[in-house]
Structures
1.
Amino acid sequence: MEAAEQLRFDREHIWHPYTSIDNPLEVFLVESAEGVRIRLHDGRELIDGMASWWSVIHGYNNPHLTKVVQDQAAKLAHVMFGGLTHQPAIQLAQLLIANTPAGLERVFFCDSGSVAVEVAMKMAIQYNYAKGISGKNRFLTIKAGYHGDTFHAMSVCDPVSGMHQIYQGILPEYFFADMPRCRFAGDWDEADVLSLEKLLEENHSTICAVILEPIVQGAGGMRFYHPQYLRRARELCDTYQVLLIADEIATGFGRSGELFACNHASISPDILCLGKALTGGYMTLAAVLATAEVGHVISRGEPSVFMHGPTFMANPLACSVAVASIELLLASDWQSNIGRIEAELKKGLEPCGPLAGVKEVRVLGAIGVVELDRPVNMARIQQRFVDNGVWVRPFGRLVYVMPSYIIDNQDLGFLTGAICRVVEAELSV
Ligand SMILES: *Cc1c(COP(=O)(O)O)cnc(C)c1O
């Protein structure tokens, strides 16, 4: 099939994320990708700013990771996890337990971030059920969050941007604390946590867990909040005997400058969700880690088992490449590398700051955000980015990048330069 024909078929038959099937936005046909470059079918090359939504941390087609997948495919591509186990899953669990915040030592593998959130929420409900505490089965989260697209994950996404009104009567209605206002590197104000505290004080007997994205609120607004908020959330959860679920699906594996964003506040959650960068972007895989206590309570009470078990649980291809990706990351000087990317993003995006129509430029770790005062025209800005030789996919008022960690300063300069030009053009329409 010719490229034009393929694209026509795609336009007429295939749904892309958050798009209309009748009036789709243009999509670009990718031929291959290498390092930080995405090659389109017509030979154009784009410098990638998105790492395919946080996940491709070592760049595309990393020779070592590709070989690990190939070797594993030749040995054991998949086997059911009910009653069977395998070295890739065991090795991955060991690595996760050793490197995530202290105390997390029971691992549940699943297929995607949204399912990991479902699993974490089910754990929190089963934990209280097993304890014989009735009615402690609701959730508290913070506004402007994002936790995925399945039903219960959706129920703890921001109610406005998550369009909860569509699902009224079907979607459970949970507690939403005001979003943290104190910035990551700003001053701390205890008033920031009052909304969370009040909701817990008044409703803790019905709340089984607080679920939040530590430090970085991702797809719900790309905001970086104060570590003291997270410390206070941990304390309040302890005070009111509510579990803390940390959704590090976006932030895990170094993205925010710490290996896990919880480390900024030196706290451990009771349950941790990982996904996205877990396999270096090679395969879909997610993991939920829980404390021994959560594991024991669930297993000792009724029904004495955790009620979940996906068909492709702990897929060996995904586990083996996750092991290789984590080892690659830990063997590198990742922390100073993320510091380098942070400094370059700050320098490169700074010229956007004074532009009329730019609300704020902010950078944390390998995440750069240009927040505008109005939503972008997606079709127009997407084409402009491609014309400028970069792959950046904004949403709403947010133009943001989270490049692969292997991006060098020259490519980073090219990327941020393109962002400044495109943002300026977009704002001058
Ligand atoms: C992406 C994301 C999810 C959902 O993960 P999927 O793999 O897309 O289902 C959940 N939580 C956070 C914080 C995310 O960034």
2.
Amino acid sequence: MEVPYFDLHRQYGVLKNDLEKKVLSSLRSTQYSLGPEVELFENNFSYFIGTNYCTAVNTGTSALHLALLACGIGAGDEVITVSMTFIATVMSISYTGAKPVFVDVFEDTQLMDYRNIEKKINNRTKAIVVVHLYGQCAEMDSIKKIAKKYNLRIIEDSSQAHGAKFNNFNAGSIGDIGTFSFYPGKNLGASGEGGAITTNNKRFDQKIKNLRNWSQPKRYYHNEISFNYRMDSIQAATLNVKLKYIKKWTNDRRRIAKTYQSLIKNSKFSITMENPNNYHVYHIFSLFYKRRNILHKYLNANGVGTNFHYPVPAHLQKPYQKLGYKKNDLPITEKISKSQLSIPIFPEMKKNEVEYVIKLLNNF
Ligand SMILES: *Cc1c(COP(=O)(O)O)cnc(C)c1O
């Protein structure tokens, strides 16, 4: 049997009529950048996340960049984050001129180890970028306490965590600013690139909206160095259709994860678990196995798609070698980068596909 790692054709099959109607009408409107469809999406998405404000942008990376700029981050500042993430989290910090400072993660959750934060704080530290990796929120209570004590801003990179909850609060509504990606492979994906920024802070929201669109209170009059990070209306039209399904899709992902968790029985490796006080949205379902390359080859040879998230942690990537981290500076992060394997989990996975993956894993 062939089980793809991910298959958007199945989702497209279900949404075809609705999606094509909305995208065509957006095309015919000739309002291609920002406009009413984008504003509608901003309202819909802020309602879904539970924040007062939302700004739609062109990518999740731009969302992070603007969130950092809204917090006043720039050259000479330091921003604490994790190395176990997609590189955009870290590169967006570099775009501002600030220096990323890495803390390790917990081995059992792969999320920011808050016990490591305080020793990395100095008088240049301005913010913490928390990553809700794989679809599960980091331990926000402890992180918020530290941020409050040292007067640091918190940005939640929620690119993998649409609708994930910590103590019943949505990812992206807990810190000062939340950022999202709508890259097609994310739990909520556009027909191309997209991103959003959520906040309850009016001042941040205004700053973000200015920076997104050339900071022009009046057309062709510009207040500061700013960007073209606008969202296309066709992406907003897609997202307005798909947002109606996100709760159902999340339930489907959770159902598959629960099946994996109760039926995968193999003492050779460990698997993704849900932490207390969390609502995991299972963007990624992980196995952890010292000899993961063997498991990866075995699954691929039997028709099952797999992935690594992420094989090289940020602090060991070429552009960050100048920061001077050495091998073993972040031992848990490095261990995960060598042992993590992602197996298929997407809402349209069929029952027999899930069963097949489980059978292969139990027989391994
Ligand atoms: C996808 C992703 C991003 C970047 O989003 P883009 O829309 O691809 O720019 C940032 N952070 C994390 C954790 C991601 O998974």
